[in-house]
Amino acid sequence: MYLLGISALTLTETVLMASAGTLVQAVWRSKKRPQALKTLFKVSTLVISVSGAYFASRQMRQEQTQVPALVVTATVLFVLNSWLVSLVVALSSGESAMSIWRNCNQWTFLYYLMGAGISALVIAYSRVAGWEQALAMLPAAYLMYSYTDGYVAKTREAHG
Question: Max alpha carbon distance in the chain (Å)?
Answer without folding.
Answer: 52
